[in-house]
Specification:
Order of helices and strands: HHHHHHHH
Number of strands: 0
Shape: elongated
Radius of gyration: 18 Å
Largest sheet: none
């Protein structure tokens, strides 16, 4: 195993970093796309209650991401096994990681959607969230939802409590986004 394999072994979730970036982009674009090109004037005419509009966008995000997340996890597992040969995670841990990937990416996309509604700017949201999530997870370690990707380990949060914390942050972001949208329409 080369130098890159050793680095990847110490960063078991390094492969889903691109999946997280994609989830952030999907969540941000789903909400912020109406702020570009004058669509913002049409949305209140079609859906006067902006909270319902944000809820519909959240549902449109929440349905496909859990399906794509495990696929991302499976591809990551296969590429990781190829790069790391026999020193990578055991095949028995692969399905848990693939499902955990879907469970981790869904709240990430929804969190980005809620945050994007606050400044009404996709660029501002992407400029904030991508560096924040990638740098914080690299410096601090596992984000709460990421512990679902790994086998049980020592620490303050287990997989389900980590996902619960992530879900609470996601709900707070969506509520903040809904409040910002309603306040803007007043």
């Amino acid at each position: 195993m080369g130098r890159h394999g050793a680095a990847l072994r110490h960063q078991p979730d390094a492969g889903i970093a691109l999946g997280r970036v994609a989830a952030i982009a999907i969540g941000t674009t789903a909400v912020a796309s109406e702020f570009w090109g004058g669509a913002l004037g049409l949305t209140p005419a079609a859906v006067p209650d902006r909270r319902r509009c944000l809820a519909a966008k959240a549902a449109a995000i929440a349905l496909p991401v859990p399906a794509v997340g495990p696929l991302t996890g499976l591809v990551t597992l296969l590429v990781g096994r190829t790069v790391l040969a026999d020193s990578g995670p055991a095949w028995a841990e692969g399905p848990r990681g693939a499902v955990g990937c879907g469970l981790c990416l869904t709240p990430t996309a929804l969190f980005a959607a809620g945050i994007a509604a606050v400044p009404c700017s996709g660029v501002a949201t992407l400029s904030l969230l991508i560096p924040f999530l990638l740098i914080v997870s690299f410096v601090v370690g596992d984000l709460p939802g990421q512990v679902a990707l790994h086998r049980p380990r020592e620490g303050s949060l287990g997989p389900w409590s980590g996902l619960a914390v992530t879900a609470l942050w996601t709900a707070a972001a969506l509520l903040a986004g809904a409040r910002a949208l309603v306040g803007r329409d007043a």
